[in-house]
Amino acid sequence: MNSRFVLISGCSGGGKSTLLAELRARGYPVVEEPGRRIIAEELVSGGNALPWVDTAAFLRRAIDVALKDMAIAKPHSGWVFFDRSLVDAASALEALTGEPVLHPVCSDHRYHARVFMTPPWPEIYVTDAERRHDFEAVTAEYQRLTETLPMLGYDVISLPKTSPSERADFVLATLGGSAASID
């Protein structure tokens, strides 16, 4: 397990990116969501690894990006916060295709034992050019992750529906404050 790599996961449109922007503003390294980066690249290049075109190809690419992100983040000495993860992509691919990818991949590449989850929050959920799924789909995604993460040995902590600043305070307090130094 990499006890410095903290995963922020959960419901799409639940405020993950806003929370991570707050943590970045406080000086912590943040790794952007693989899916959003892949979608942006595929839209520019005219590629097909998009969740609404070839979901399996998109998820396989997200697994590869998440593994590279973990390798790139290793030199940081303090907390590193990840917007989504290897677990998100592998669990989605396994649910979609039935391929047994979750345990082999996620057992070898671990995050901090505590995973922070953004719950479904309809008052702030919006779709956009890169987030096309409806609220029912994002709620199902959240449910899948809240079942999968404990099976992998993670302690799932639901984030309160509060301001980004209060959420950041909650995350840092839960992790023990600033015990891990800021790079």
User: Separation of termini?
Assistant: 20 Å
Main β-sheet description = 5 strands, parallel
Rg from Cα: 15 Å
CATH top level assignment: Alpha Beta
> Could you name the CATH topology?
Rossmann fold
Count of helix runs? 7
Widest sheet, order of strands: 2-3-1-4-5
Shape type: globular
Order of helices and strands: EHEHHEHHEHEH
Q: Total strand count, please?
A: 5
Low-confidence stretches: 178-183
Annotated CATH homologous superfamily = P-loop containing nucleotide triphosphate hydrolases
Named at the architecture level, the CATH assignment is: 3-Layer(aba) Sandwich
Tell me about this structure:
- The chain is of the alpha/beta class and 183 residues long.
- The chain has one domain: P-loop containing nucleotide triphosphate hydrolases (Rossmann fold), CATH 3.40.50.300.
- 48% of the residues lie in helices and 11% in strands.
- The chain contains 7 helices and 5 strands.
- The protein has a 5-stranded parallel sheet, with helices on both faces.
- β4, α6 (135-151) and β5 (155-158) form a beta-alpha-beta unit.
- α4 packs across α6.
- The longest helix has 19 residues, at 55-73.
